[in-house]
Amino acid sequence: MLTLDLNDARPLHQQVASAIRHAIGEGAYTPGDRLPPARDLADALGINANTVLRALRDLRDEGLLEFRRGRGVSVAGRADGRALLVERARELLDEARRYGYRREDLITILEELP
């Protein structure tokens, strides 16, 4: 089951996307598996269904999920490491902001790495 951390400063849709990525990474959902309807996920998490839909769209745009009319949302068979890298990059950006760095500063730091 997916859970959210109420102490997490990230927007809720990012937390939901992260929780789904984690569930897929841990094998709770495998390629081809259907996710519960957005409304059911929202009810279980105690949040708005539009927040869950935004997270699902983000994951679809990353290639991790696919939407099929009449069949719901399922884990894409072609999911690769990109989704994990996107999640880690978001976490790194959040951490950098907590230390007062901007996105551009973080890009500069990354470009300086060997």
UniProtKB/TrEMBL annotation:
The keyword Mitochondrion does not apply. Transmembrane segments: none annotated. It comes from the Bacteria. Residues 10-78 form the HTH gntR-type domain. SMART domains: HTH_GNTR. GO terms for molecular function: DNA binding; DNA-binding transcription factor activity. Keywords: DNA-binding, Pyridoxal phosphate, Transcription, Transcription regulation. PANTHER family: HTH-TYPE TRANSCRIPTIONAL REGULATORY PROTEIN GABR. This is GntR family transcriptional regulator.
